[in-house]
Amino acid sequence: MKLRIRFSKTGAVRFIGHLDIMRYFQKAMRRAGYDICYSKGYHPHPVMSFASPLGLGLESMGEYMDIEVNSALSADEMKNMLNEQMAEGIEILSVNLLEDEASNSMSAFAAADYLVRIKDEACAADSQSVTACNISEKALSDFLERKEIVVRKKTKKNEIDLDIRPLIYEMYLRADQSIFMKLSAGSSANLKPELVMQALCSQDGSAFEPYQLQITRLEMYADSGTDGNRCLTPLDKYQTKVS
Amino acid sequence: MRKLALGDDILLTVEKPARYLGNEINAVYKDPSKTDIRFAMCFPDVYEIGMSYLGIQIIYDLLNARDDISCERVYSPWVDLDKIMRERNIPLFALESQDPVRDFDFLGITIQYEMCYTNILQILELSGIPILACDRSDGDTLVIGGGPCTYNPEPIADFFDMFYIGEGETVYYRLMDEYKRCRSAGMSRDEFLLRAAAIPGIYVPKYYEASYNDDGTLADFRPAADNVPAKIEKQVVGDLDSVSYPEKPLIPFIKVTQDRLVLEIMRGCIRGCRFCQAGMVYRPNRERSLDFLIKKADLMLESTGHDEISLSSLSSSDYSKLPELTDHLITECQKKNVNISLPSLRIDAFSLDVMSKVQDVRKSSLTFAPEAGTQRMRDVINKGLTEEVILNGAMDAFRGGWSRIKLYFMLGLPTETDEDVEGIAVLADKIASGFYSIPKEERPGSKRVEIVSSTSFFVPKPFTPFQWCRQCTKEEFEEKQKLLSRKMHQVLNHRSMRYNWHEFELTRLEGIFARGDRRLGKVILAAYKNGCIYDSWSEFFNLAGWEDAFASCGIDPSFYINRERALDEKFPWDHIDAGVSRSFLEKEYLKAHNSEITQNCRSGCSGCGCRAYNTGVCYEA
User: Fold this and answer.
1) CB contact under 8 A, A12 and B337
2) Rounded to the nearest 5°, which phi and psi values hold at B612?
3) Distance (Å, rounded) from C-alpha B567 to C-alpha B502?
4) A12–B303: do the CB atoms touch at under 8 Å?
5) Which residue, of A227, B172, B325, B355, has the greatest Cβ tally within 10 A?
6) What is d(CA A55, CA A71) in angstroms, rounded to the nearest whole number?
7) Could you tell me the CATH number of the domain that includes residue B352?
8) B91 and B200 belong to one structural domain
9) Is there a contact between A10 and B254 if contact means CB atoms under 8 Å apart?
10) Gap from A88 CA to chain B (nearest CA, Å)
11) Are the beta carbons of B413 and B470 closer than 8 angstroms?
12) Given its phi and psi angles, is residue B72 left (phi above 0), alpha (psi -120 to 50 degrees) or beta?
């Protein structure tokens, strides 16, 4: 049977890269006593896949991975067993049983929510030079009213011009001056929040200072809409069985 | 949430920031205000190397087992962070609390190889601890060294307040208790060091002084204070089952060099190879019991979730309960999808059978370490391996399905002739011929054999029978390597041969420091000031920096390596008692020159002196 696990990643572990997080979970599941399925061969490895790698330095409240197990206890018990094996900064938020026919989180992943805020230490150090502190409602609405927002995007082979406006589904300034954004994601059109911030800063004429920003991925969605109508469902509620 | 010593801007610019975060599973966090002693345990190389070393995990576990001590870890910052720390004056910190190392009572440094000496100075300097022990005062962190290089600690004596000679499990608690006592009595650093020097196994170099003859050799080495011992005795654990073994080893986030569970099955070696320092200084050979190992292996697999377990010892085939142990592990590990790795096995029918159960024969290669090409040479080094045994082992391997063989040799061994050098290619060729003598349809793999021979250059080490021997010059090494390369191309099966060799320059430095004396301290400091660091990493090895250091200190390196020492020469390490007696080593040195072999400890005692420890193979029934 397939399980979908949602976890958060905050604090020091945000500097642990994706491959290392995978290795970390393989060991954690052994310690937790999960009855996980293994691939065949001389070097069997647990059957496990992640929805999407999280960039180094980013926090998340909504990371997902799918695993296959031979047997499982209740969702709550599974969650608690794994939580007992976590390092500081990684918390298991939910474990859900998937429908047998469910697509894996990686292929279902279609959109994500992000929160961008200025790090406290950056604000304290120098409030003048800090970029997004000064983003006004006006600047943001000007940004979103543009018909197209063309940015240079590096691909594996070269650089291309990309209109990111259609990939921004939602974006607004919150009362605490942080910026919320809902962006297209997944294999077909993945937009990184850093790129949006860079475009916003360049419209505004301010310098883009990536180290001053703390980006948090809040949620990942699948799109179950048809005929071009978007219908976003959080991955932990998508094709899961009620247990 | 834990604070971090480095800002996000730094962590996002340096390579592998996980090296500096701590936060690993099974790391121990204590509130320093609730402990009496803070101990920073350091491996002076990059995190991935240091985290692979079992010794630190043992001491970490041992010290943290006490409520009054908090032990944390420190590794060498990689060159990218090193630069940033210097530019921004960021002090070196310990991983767990992220507090500066200079806030700790002790900095313990394990010294595993000579080529980390400049990294030790980096650790001290970045910590803000005076590099020279004589410049430290009451408030400064106490710097203690341990590990194999401390059997001749003289080249680095200037940088350490003390050395611990022997196995860490034995007197660390006693040392810590003494420290607490001295501190609460308001004693000075010197008063503590003087008391520490009286603890068996603790060597405080400042209380000893050396004088030299006109020819540069050591004239005298004596205690320069009352009540310090003339000889420092190596400390060993009597019963390995009785000392703690980490049941919850640390699990790094990033992939480290030894990314597996390590089960140390015994210490010491019964073999007595004459080139091998470990085989001499870790005597007597002592085994852990089968029950102990099975219990620990099961516990540790559970506490770590590792997917691979490795047996560790100098010669695992000599572990007396090896069949029982591997049987248990194979059964348990197959159930748990855990891989088993078995390094340092002699190739014979038993080990081939075990290996065929735990690895994919078609993909893996088999490693033999004949160390020398001719039987004469193998007898000189007391390798105890005949050509017949090697060839039979190889044939068994081919019939078992292996078709890739790795061979390890040394060049520049004492008494080596051209014939011995070429003998390496001849032996590799005979092994290949053995393969091709098998009918084509019965041959494994791609019907061809691949034989990879590697040579390292021999470095004479203290406390071995070869401690009197001269090391080859760079030119001699080069000539030997070229001779062998040529021969490799001439042998019948040359198409099946590959040959790799090590670098000369590192070998030379390693040799100088292995048998060096106190006068080399200033050379190491000068080289460090010239920018030498991470010397064992070929991309950073700075030969010009070292050459300039020797020249500016007026020290001729060839004095330390390129001369045969007289039998009665005083050695800089004579005040260390490593268990094996000098008279035994001398006897072995003379036997080597007659190609006479010495039996192994299990076949019979050769009187090396280690019976005095009252334990181990010396007292086996």
Assistant:
1) no
2) -60, -20
3) 30
4) no
5) B172
6) 32
7) 3.30.750.210
8) yes
9) no
10) 7
11) no
12) beta
Q: Are residues B229 and B291 in the same domain?
A: no
- Residue A131: its pLDDT value, please? 47
pLDDT of the residue at B271: 94
Same domain, B99 and B176: yes
Q: Which are the contacts of B620, defined by CB distance < 8 A and separation ≥ 6?
A: B602
Question: Is residue B416 domain-shared with residue B388, that is, in the same domain?
Answer: yes
Residue B431 placed within a domain: yes
| Domains, in order of start, for chain A | 2-97 (3.30.70.580), 110-234 (no CATH)
* ipTM field: 0.92
The tokens describing B304, both together, are: 């770590």
Range of the domain at B452: 360-514
Give percent of chain B with pLDDT exceeding 90.
90
CA separation for the pair B38, B573 (Å, rounded): 31
When pLDDT is averaged across residues A218-223 and rounded to a whole number, the result is 96
d(CA B469, CA B410): 15
Answer whether B1 touches A (CB < 8 Å). Answer: yes
- How do residues B232-282 score in pLDDT, each as one tens digit? 999 999 999 999 899 999 999 999 999 999 999 999 999 999 999 999 999
Q: Are residues B601 and B616 in the same domain?
A: yes
- Chain A interface disruption, residue of B12, B24, B248, most A CBs within 10 A: B12
B302 touching A, CB under 8 A?
yes
Select from B6, B9, B16, B357 the residue whose CB has the most chain A CBs within 10 Å, as the one to mutate to test that interface: B9
Q: How many CA atoms lie within 13 A of B121 on its CB side?
A: 25
Tokens of B45: 């190389």
Quote the crossing angle between the two packed helices A75-83 and A18-32, to the nearest 10°.
110
Q: Do B42 and B172 have their domain in common?
A: yes
Domain of residue B210, CATH code: 3.40.50.280
User: A166 to chain B nearest CA, in Å?
Assistant: 30
Are B142 and B186 found together in one domain? yes
Do residues B455 and B319 share a domain? no
CB of A40 closer than 8 Å to CB of A114? no
The answer to the question of residue B46 being in a domain is yes
Model-level pTM? 0.95
Q: Is B414 within 8 Å of B372 (Cβ atoms)?
A: no
The total number of structural domains in chain B stands at 3
Question: Domain with B364 in it: what CATH number?
Answer: 3.30.750.200
Structure tokens belonging to residue B477: 């090494």
Q: Are A192 and A164 in contact (CB under 8 A)?
A: no
Tell whether B155 is covered by a domain.
yes
For residue A208, CA distances in Å to A120, A155, B82, B508 come to 17, 20, 27, 51
